[in-house]
Design goal:
About 40% of the residues lie in helices and about 15% in strands. The protein is of the alpha/beta class and about 375 residues long. It has one domain: TIM Barrel (Alpha-Beta Barrel), CATH 3.20.20. Helix 6 crosses helix 7. The protein is globular.
Length: about 375
């Protein structure tokens, strides 16, 4: 019996995924009425559409409360919890990888190890985990604990947390754990993940965060604010991982507005991202990001502000199908191994991207055609 492997492990093509479809408004801080409605039915429709198109993965955002003192768009206020969301999507799809975003301070590592292993069994090896060390202080306060002010403590905690998860995923033997943050007795895991460790994603901007990512992650996410700057950055991140004897791919995120003409695309960006931006929420999001996170270069604040309104800081892929394909190729040329995509309305806009942009990427050799998927895992009789 055979099963598709995890598409995040697939070699020799540029990876494409979606980002934040589990959240209301997705990645667009806008008040336009057609902004994304993150209902389960819409996510299921999107997931099956992406699966049929050969898209590699879906990546969610984890949120526990809406942005306080924000505007009327309910940006990322309605949020489907990421572990149950992933389990449901993986049960209803065949090939796509679905990642669960997990805040280390909100979950016990023994519980998460069991949850992800179970999801990976449901998916026959298509699960993934996005580890977040924590940056949103109002959310941690809502959960009943304080966010450590210093990055060092957050990442020491995350490192110990994932050490436990990794040991549970790689051994059936019981073990004790005596760490700085966790004291565990006689823990073990059964079942293990379906076919080895699920792919690990981490987004990091600070030096200590990138130390954590290059030590533990398979994919490091970082914004592509300036692609010339990104060429150096991606090379440095890969070299940092190589110094540890590891290979870590670097990915980014992008926002798509693809239309038959460039004017139509630019007019729509002006409409949703400028004329109808949710300014109050935009101010609040940037305030929180720059107070507690170090993912974005502060010296590019004006550019970042507009990028946040039009895609939460994602690289803009705006224009005709050919121009959007050019933008994806430029991201690849800057050293990235993949990017997520977001849309104002994923379900309505993705089909045009699928029909017009994906064939261009395949013709250029950036992506393999959907029927050339050779990434297969054979189910061992021992299981």
């Amino acid at each position: 019996m055979t099963f598709p492997g995890n598409r995040l492990r697939k070699k020799n093509h540029f990876k494409l995924g979606t980002f934040s479809s589990n959240c209301s408004s997705g990645m667009s801080i806008t008040n336009v009425p057609e902004r994304w409605d993150a209902s389960w039915d819409h996510n299921l429709e999107l997931g099956q559409m992406l699966d049929a198109a050969g898209i590699d993965f879906m990546l969610p955002v984890a949120r526990w409360i809406s942005y306080a003192n924000a505007g009327s768009s309910n940006f990322q206020g309605h949020v489907l919890e990421t572990l149950t969301w992933a389990a449901g999507l993986l049960a209803a799809t065949k090939r796509i990888s679905v990642v669960s975003t997990v805040h280390t301070m909100a979950y016990n590592p023994v519980v998460v190890a069991k949850q992800i292993a179970t999801i990976d069994q449901i998916a026959h090896g298509r699960a993934g985990i996005n580890i977040v060390a924590g940056w949103n202080a109002p959310e941690t306060e809502a959960l009943g604990f304080d966010l450590p002010e210093d990055h060092e403590t957050r990442y020491r905690y995350a490192d110990e947390w994932f050490e436990i998860v990794r040991r549970l995923w790689t051994s059936k033997d019981r073990f004790d754990f005596d760490g700085e943050f966790f004291k565990l007795k006689g823990v073990h895991a059964d079942p293990l993940p379906f076919d080895g460790l699920p792919p690990v994603i981490n987004a990091a901007g600070s030096a200590i965060g990138r130390e954590f990512a290059t030590k533990n992650a398979d994919f490091l996410f970082t914004p592509a604010i300036d692609l010339k700057r990104s060429v150096k950055e991606t090379a440095e991140l890969k070299a940092l991982a190589a110094d540890r004897g590891r290979e870590v791919d670097v990915m980014t995120f992008a926002h798509v507005v693809c239309r038959p003409t460039r004017k139509e695309a630019e007019d729509y960006v002006q409409y949703f991202g400028f004329e109808n931006r949710d300014t109050e929420t935009l101010n609040r999001v940037i305030e929180l990001q720059f107070a507690h996170a170090q993912s974005f270069p502060h010296e590019l604040l004006t550019l970042i502000r507009d990028r946040f309104a039009c895609g939460h800081g994602g690289y803009p892929l705006t224009g005709t199908p050919e121009e959007v394909a050019d933008g994806i190729c430029a991201i690849q040329d800057a050293g990235f191994r993949g990017t997520t995509l977001s849309f104002v309305d994923y379900v309505k806009e993705f089909p045009y991207f699928r029909d017009e942009v994906l064939p261009i990427l395949e013709a250029r050799g950036v992506r393999q055609a959907n029927d050339q998927d050779d990434n297969v895992v054979r189910l061992a009789t021992a299981r």
